[in-house]
Amino acid sequence: MRDNGDKELDCGYLWGKGRIALNDSENSGSAYAPPQDYNFFGSFTHSIDEKGRIIIPNAYRMALGETFSIGPTRSINGVALYPNKVFDQILSELNSLNPRDDLITQYKDMFYSLSTRDMQKDAQGRILLPQKLRKTFLENAQDVEIKGSYNIIRILDATKAAENEKNFFANLPTVLEHLRNSGP
Fold first, then answer.
1. pLDDT by residue (tens digit) across 109-163?
2. Residue 37: what pLDDT?
3. CA 51 to chain centre
């Protein structure tokens, strides 16, 4: 893996111009085109209850579907909820990668081991966060930020989410300059 500002894994052709982008929002110019009916936007703060459950905001429930997948983000630095079509596309792309490449195999093994298929919401719209995901990415968080990221839903420790937002605004001039220089 190399780092040039965005983390990426060189491996051929997926998720954007000759590489897999490990950044969940980087899909421009790639063969990957998520379905257009996913509109996960906005941010909500909820508590994790004593059983390890969180409430999925109403705004996300219908698009997420009756069953969905939960796992790490593509950069394996947080928790994500994936509509099944999006998750199936990711699995298809991962499974097309060179199985003899040790780094790719390590990435795939970690992604698969942290993922769970066929998740469902209960009648109150709650889901049980798998213990390994909670321990790995949310540690002892009591409150989480549940935020839309176009075709996935990200779940972050609310304290870390606030730090990320503060850092984003501190770096906003650089971000805007990068945006001006990177597209049509």
1. 999 999 999 999 999 999 999 999 999 999 899 999 999 998 999 999 999 999 9
2. 65
3. 23
pTM for this entry: 0.77
Give strand pairing partners of 32: none
Task: Report the Cα–Cα distance between both ends of the chain, in Å, rounded.
Answer: 28
Going across the sheet that includes 67-72, the strands are 43-47, 143-149, 152-157, 79-83, 67-72, 116-120
DSSP string, the chain: -EESSSEEEE-SSSSSTTEEE-STT--TTSS----TT--B--EEEEE--TTSEEEPPHHHHHHH-SEEEEEE-TTSSSEEEEEHHHHHHHHHHHHTS-TT-HHHHHHHHHHHHT-EEEEE--TTSEEEPPHHHIIIIITT-SEEEEEEEBTEEEEEEHHHHHHHHHHHHHTHHHHHHHHHTS--
d(CA 59, CA 148): 10
Sign for the pseudo-dihedral over CA of 97, 98, 104, 110? positive
Token pair of 130 as six digits: 């798998």
Confidence of residue 9 (pLDDT cuts 50, 70, 90): very low
Q: What angle do CA 169, 139, 89 make, to 5 degrees?
A: 75
